[in-house]
Write a structure and sequence with these properties.
The complex is a heterodimer of chains A (about 900) and B (about 475). Chain A folds into five domains: about 240 residues, Rossmann fold, CATH 3.40.50.1460; about 40 residues, no CATH class; about 160 residues, 3-Layer(aba) Sandwich (D-Maltodextrin-Binding Protein, domain 2), CATH 3.40.190.10; about 180 residues; about 190 residues, 3-Layer(aba) Sandwich (Rossmann fold). With about 900 residues, chain A is α/β, with parallel strands linked by helices. In chain A, helix 1 links the parallel strand 2 and strand 3. The longest helix of chain A has about 30 residues. Chain A is built from 27 helices and 28 strands. Chain B has a six-stranded mixed beta sheet. Chain B has a four-stranded mixed beta sheet with strand order 8-9-7-10. The radius of gyration of chain B is 24 Å and the shape is globular. Chain B is of the alpha/beta class. Helices cover about 45% and strands about 10% of the residues of chain B. The chains are: A alpha/beta (about 900), B alpha/beta (about 475). At the A-B interface, helix 2, strand 7, strand 13, helix 8 and helix 9 of A face strand 2, helix 4, helix 10, helix 11 and helix 12 of B.
């Protein structure tokens, strides 16, 4: 075995001793350990006095800071010695070093052997590392002794699960340290020096007669990583010590006297050189110039993809690609971030409206107010939001549809598709306890899945994100219509209206659609506080979502507005992913958006292209996207890479199937249009009555903007086959009649403009200072709606709270409930902005009796409501 | 409009005179400015409310029209659009309503122009810091904000605590003790001994969702542990310690006295929990006071105090919130912009803001009602419905005013850097990872290093290996 001789190199010894504890028993013996060790180390020809540091940490950061400093400075041998209390978890793992203020079981007050000490040492530039742990449970350090690359030797004062301090030790150095010091100082008979192995062997001999405070034998242990060498720790001998070789003395003299001044000498030289080289070179010596604000890029995406893209965008900001100097771009100081990215999201229909009215978007942004005011999307800067430089929709189908809505010429926004950045196959989630008979999870056609889930078989309710609000919903609809029999979707071919109708029949009834797949899954999340509707609905539902969202749901990650759980869901609460054959996957194309008149158009375009390239780079953005559960983009060989080892899809509890192929989107733009057309046709005409509480209390606490925003959003859902009415209550003209309502826009109106105008007036404060008697007003509304025989109708009730209670005539509630239960069904979709939210008996009862739903106020409320409204016209046959 | 014919020419004449007079004081003017003054702002300003009323009053007084451009609802979206459009030279806005944390970045990016003069001494010193950057003043403070500790006065008193806690250690101890006793009592009374989850009392709620609110809570915790609000680096010894202790404290509170859901809470959601009677303490802004008061009786059931003091020097430092008004660099109507900003931030206007639920930026607004400037807006009309806005405390100061005033004077701005946004993103990402981890690992060194990198405007020092699966 060769011996490593560190003499003359830049060595460091960090001697950590903690004897004074705030909450633990003091260790008076430890107090002298560092000084004793320093004497031994400097007297035996290995370390010089300035290479040894003593540290008595009170706070965890003091220890980690000293450790980092020593690790940074050492180039030869780095020796770290810790004596003090140690503590382990109940399983004996996770050794923690206790500093002065450490408290047992409050791990943030301690220093982790594994996470702090080892990870710090792994980053040192020292050639060899020797660690001596003298603490209770030191022997347990061996279990977590891993190093990626550094040659390390570890000496543990005792075998695992032993305490070594009783707390009663006298002062003057501990038993163990005294033994170490003696061995290092006196040397070993017949040896020219003391190596690490020698030390271990000799210690075992000396401690053989000792007992640990627990009464058993005391046996120091050692371990090594990445090395077979032995390290010399002392040049003491039992006889006459050999003189230090002149070579080493010379190097030490250089280290001690010249090296500290080396910088000075170098600086002097540099100054001379610079003086000669002139001003250009001088610039290099100045402190780094301040960085100007980076170019702000606006990245618009769908709500589902926002969390992942946020992470990726931030990683890009700090990446080398974003900070590396570019040729021909001289004005930015070296190392500065070139771009910064804000990621935000909006519902699909709002994005479509934004691009369709790009002139208004641009006009609002310029402050000129140009562009035609439309009936839809009046404030594009408010919704969908900033003018994007980059748009990443869920699917190319969404992009095609937005393109179709834009004027052929003259739009100030120019869109270019640069291709996909991440995939996620579309799936149908089948309750894990109700797997389909004779239907394979991979390879079955939509037809098979529809049959397997119908009322004659598993009897599952298919839930789909709205094709109007969500790209996932749109692509699922394309799959349902065009790949119904499982055949490959060509670039031509139109959906069969009968097939479309048949498929829509299965996606039935109000409440079967959601704003996007994460909100849909969030509504199915089991909740301990509320095992009611969600629990009952969960195992009778089959959500049409993406593989990534379903994996997140199963693994207990955050989905939509549901926070992350501690653990994956239990088997019975999970959904198994079924992959309908030949249905294209979400492909997340990156669309570059250029706005007319931008002075920095070239720079902005280059910045977007660099981001796009990085997102597709297997060493760049792809690592983040796949780590979040997306499938990667094809490599140079054209093949879609298998999910990486860290991918959540590989977790068996994600219930995903890695064999499911990624089908690229190849559908033509016309086909997307025809599918949407088919979807529209498959819907029956519907009627919506918006009934809104306009009492003055709505103006308090910011409720009015939410209420108006939600009503506005509901109006946007009124499509070609749909009519609506807008009624408000209480009625100023009839202050004494609690049942009076104001028919602001009569039922049966198709043009959204009068509704928008009325809402605008309400937003500006057209409110009535009476209490609002909800039940009476609702009774009037329901009575009117029940006059029609049509089944596709609903009431959207927006209120603050029911003020009618005290003066209510007897029997109003019973009348209302009885009325609601009569045919035809008129579901009441309620948005409550008041104190109690949906948790009142009456509102629960309303939702139940009318087969509607109640949504509490909050940031997601308008979109949740829109999702419910969007499904009113769907071709379903009502409740199942 | 009955006298429009007769009054028209006179009004036009007086308007001309007014413009001419304005021209003399505001420096050389190439000619009268054309078109309405364009004010870009988030939706809180363009919906009904006092700020809208002040704008309308300005229009009536001066005859100049103000066009309000409604920006995205989120602060991140507002910043992104204003900054990017400014960088593209693509905007004709005159007045920008900016979050206080953005001054440095917008100034450096050349999106706003210097205000040109100093501010009068009536503005609160701490608040003026938020418009100062690089030795210049870049705008005028419009409304400000300071975090307060909301507490359940009634329940604390029932268990023998008649004063709000004075430091964070006490908050934790009292929260544990009182919430424990309260829940045990609930369980005794409940049928079958089980309390429904939504009636369980927690010790505290705060804003720990990964957004700006988490940065605010983290900075306050670091300052409470000795951190220096003026420090420009987090890697210096004491700052690392304060930051580590600060994030450890936040995690400790989350694990011991807060519901797990706190990691998804923003201002509104945390207020909802507190107002619903599900938490004893809450850190939040005064603007939520009125909403809490809808459900709990002020001064009886709940009250507010300054944030707990740091033990070393007794300072009760909150992060300053609020908005400043600045003139856009590309404004073609700078004189009108200036006049509008001066009107919106004058002593009378600031008193209106205070009376109607905002935190005023001027010292004079906080004087006793008799000595304070009076709000020039017409008092509440008889029928509330005609304005749609009910002042929470018409004609007088809100009940929290004294506490707020003290909190504002001790409050400090967030790091004033052109790269603040990236700094905040680092804090949000790292701290929320830490909060949801099983704990233990010290993150201060890595967090401090990354925070410094973020503030420097540069990238990661050396490419680091990605840490596991995100």
């Amino acid at each position: 075995m060769s011996e490593y001789d560190a003499r003359g190199k830049i060595n460091r010894a960090l001697l950590i001793g903690v004897h004074d504890y705030a909450t633990l028993r003091g260790l008076p013996a430890v107090e002298d350990n560092p000084a004793e060790l320093r004497r031994a180390l400097t007297a035996t020809d290995l370390f010089t006095a300035d290479e040894v540091t003593i540290c008595r940490p009170g706070e965890p950061w003091e220890l980690s800071q000293a450790l980092t400093a020593a690790a940074d400075e050492a180039r030869g041998l780095l020796l770290v010695h810790f004596s003090g209390h140690g503590w382990v978890g109940s399983d004996g793992g996770d050794l923690r070093l206790m500093v002065g203020t450490s408290v047992p079981r409050q791990s943030h007050t301690t220093v982790s052997w594994q996470d702090v000490v080892l990870s710090c040492l792994d980053n040192t530039r020292a050639e060899r590392i020797v660690i001596v742990l003298e603490c209770c449970y030191a022997g347990n350090a061996g279990g977590a002794f891993h190093s990626h690359r550094k040659p390390m030797s570890l000496l543990m004062a005792a075998q695992p699960n032993r305490r070594i301090f009783s707390g009663d030790e006298p002062a003057g150095g501990t038993l163990f340290t005294r033994a170490v010091v003696q061995i290092l100082e006196r040397g070993i008979p017949g040896r020219r020096f003391v190596t690490f192995e020698d030390l271990v062997r000799e210690l075992r001999v000396r401690l053989a007669g000792e007992r640990t405070p627990m009464g058993d034998v005391w046996e120091p242990r050692s371990a090594k990583q990445n090395t077979v060498d032995d390290v010399v720790l002392s040049f003491a001998t039992s006889g006459t010590p050999l003189p230090t070789p002149p070579r080493i003395r010379l190097r030490r003299w250089f280290n001690q006297h010249l090296r500290p001044r080396l910088r000075l000498l170098l600086a002097l030289c540099t100054v001379l050189v610079l003086a000669a080289a002139g001003l250009t070179a001088l610039r290099l010596l100045r402190p780094l110039p301040a960085c100007p604000p980076a170019l702000e890029l606006r990245l618009l995406t769908a709500p589902e993809a926002e969390p992942t893209l946020r992470q990726a965008a931030f990683a890009y900001e700090m990446s080398e690609l974003n900070t590396r100097p570019l040729q021909g771009e001289g004005e930015l100081p070296a190392g500065c971030r070139r771009a910064q990215i804000t990621v935000y999201s909006a519902a699909k229909d709002q994005i479509d409206q934004g691009f369709a009215a790009a002139d208004r978007w641009q006009g609002e942004a310029k402050g000129t107010g140009q562009g035609q005011p439309g009936t839809k999307g009046a404030d594009p800067l408010n919704r969908p939001g900033p003018q994007p430089d980059v748009w990443i929709p869920e699917s190319t189908a969404v992009y095609e549809e937005a393109r179709r809505g834009m004027p052929p010429t003259g739009s100030p926004a120019a869109l270019s598709d640069t291709g996909p950045v991440a995939y996620s196959p579309l799936v149908v989630g089948i309750p894990a306890t109700k797997r389909l008979d004779d239907v394979e999870p991979v390879g079955a056609s939509w037809q098979d899945l529809l049959t397997g889930t119908d009322s004659a078989h598993r009897d599952l309710k298919l839930l789909r994100p709205s094709p109007v609000l969500s790209g996932t919903g749109l692509l699922h609809t394309i799959g349902l219509y065009l790949a119904n029999d499982g055949s490959h979707i060509g670039t031509s071919g139109a959906p069969d209206p009968a097939l479309a109708e048949g498929a829509e029949q299965r996606l039935s009834a109000p409440g079967s659609q959601y704003a996007d797949s994460t909100e849909l899954l969030c509504s199915l999340r089991p909740s301990s506080a509320d095992p009611g509707p969600a629990g009952g609905q969960r195992d009778r539902s089959a959500p049409l979502v993406s593989e990534k969202s379903l994996a997140d749901f199963n693994l207990g990650h955050a989905v939509g507005s549901c926070p992350a759980l501690d653990a994956p869901l239990p088997y019975g609460d999970r959904y198994a992913a079924y992959y309908p054959r030949n249905v294209p996957a979400l492909d997340h194309p990156l669309i570059r958006v250029a706005w007319r008149g931008a002075a920095d158009a070239t720079v902005r375009r280059a910045a977007v292209d660099r981001l796009a390239g990085w997102l597709r780079d297997p060493q760049g953005g792809q690592r983040i996207l796949t780590a979040q559960g997306y499938r990667g983009v094809p490599g140079k060989d054209g093949a879609v890479p298998a999910p990486a080892p860290g991918s959540p899809l590989r977790n068996s509890r994600a219930n995903a199937d890695l064999d499911a192929p990624v089908t690229p989107f190849a559908t033509g733009a016309d086909q997307v249009a025809r599918v949407l057309d088919g979807y529209d046709k498959a819907q029956k005409s519907s009627r919506l009555l918006i009934l809104m509480d306009t009492s003055t209390s709505m103006a308090d606490g910011g409720k009015l903007p939410v209420a108006v925003g939600a009503a506005d959003r509901a109006l946007e859902m009124v499509g070609a086959h749909h009519t609506y009415g807008l009624w408000t209550f209480p009625d100023r003209a009839h202050p004494d009649d609690p049942g009076a309502v104001r028919e602001v826009v009569p039922l049966g109106t198709a043009d959204p403009a009068p509704g928008k105008a009325a809402l605008d007036r309400i937003a500006k404060g057209e409110l009535v200072d009476h209490g609002a008697a909800m039940e009476e007003a609702l009774t009037a509304a329901v009575r009117e709606m029940k006059k029609s025989a049509g089944s596709n109708q609903a009431i959207v009730l927006i209120l603050d709270e029911d003020d009618g209670g005290p003066r209510r005539a007897p029997g109003v509630e019973q009348t209302l409930t009885a009325l609601l239960k009569k045919k035809p069904p008129v579901p009441v979709l309620t948005l409550v902005l008041g104190r109690a939210g949906c948790d009142t008996f009456i509102l629960q009862g309303l939702a139940g009796a009318s087969r509607g739903q109640c949504v509490p106020g909050g940031p997601q409320a308008p979109d949740l409501l829109a999702g419910l409204v969007a499904s009113i016209g769907t071709a379903g046959k009502g409740d199942r | 409009m009955r006298t429009a014919r007769a009054a028209g020419p006179a009004a036009a004449l007086s308007l001309l005179l007014a413009v001419a007079a304005g021209g003399c004081t505001a420096g050389p003017e190439p000619g009268p400015e054309k078109g309405p003054i364009v004010l870009a702002t988030g939706s809180d300003l363009s919906s009904t409310g006092v700020r809208q009323d002040l704008i309308r009053a300005f229009e009536q007084r001066t005859g100049r029209a103000v066009r309000i451009v409604k920006l995205p609802d989120t602060a991140d979206g507002q910043r992104s659009q204003l900054l990017a459009a400014g960088q593209s030279g693509n905007s004709d806005y005159d007045v920008l309503n900016l979050d206080v944390a953005w001054t440095a970045e917008f100034a450096e990016a050349g999106v706003i122009r210097p205000w040109g003069t100093s501010l009068d001494g009536d503005f609160l010193d701490s608040v003026v810091k938020t418009v100062a950057y690089d030795g210049k003043i870049w705008g005028v403070p419009f409304n400000t904000d300071a975090g307060l500790l909301y507490y359940r006065k009634d329940i604390l008193a029932r268990y023998g605590h008649h004063q709000p806690p004075s430091n964070w250690g006490e908050v934790k101890n009292i929260a544990r003790e009182v919430a424990g006793a309260y829940n045990r009592e609930l369980a005794r009374k409940a049928k079958g001994g089980t309390v429904p989850a939504d009636r369980t009392m927690y010790g505290m709620v705060a804003q720990l969702r990964p957004y700006e609110g988490l940065t605010v809570n983290t900075l306050e915790a670091a300052w409470a542990n000795g951190g220096d609000p003026d420090a420009t680096s987090f890697t210096k010894g004491e700052q690392v310690g304060a930051l580590q202790q600060g994030v450890a404290d936040v995690k400790d509170r989350l694990d011991s006295i807060m519901p797990h859901e706190a990691t998804t809470m923003d201002e509104t959601e945390s207020r909802r929990w507190f107002a619903d009677g599900r938490a004893l303490f809450m850190r939040n802004w005064p603007v939520e006071y009125a909403s809490v008061a809808e459900k709990l009786t002020p001064r009886k059931q709940f009250d507010v105090a300054e944030l707990p003091a740091r033990p070393s020097d007794g300072k009760r430092m909150s992060v300053l919130g609020g908005q400043n008004l600045a003139i856009s660099a590309g404004s073609k109507r700078p004189a009108g912009a200036r006049a509008l900003i001066e009107a919106l931030t004058g002593p009378g206007s600031e008193r209106c803001l205070l009376e109607r639920g905002f935190a005023a930026t001027r010292d004079s607004a906080y004087r006793d009602a008799a000595k304070a400037p009076s709000c020039p807006l017409p008092p509440e009309r008889a029928e509330r419905g005609s304005t749609g806005q009910r002042a929470p405390w018409p004609g007088q100061e809100p009940p929290y005013t004294r506490t707020l005033y003290a909190a504002l004077r001790a409050a400090e701005p967030r790091p004033r850097s052109a790269h603040y946004q990236t700094f905040s993103k680092v804090v949000q990402i790292r701290v929320s990872q830490y909060l949801s981890s099983r704990g233990g690992t010290a993150i201060a060194d890595a967090l401090a290093r990354e925070a410094d990198e973020a503030l420097s405007g540069r990238g990661a020092e050396q490419p680091r290996r990605p840490e596991g699966a995100g």
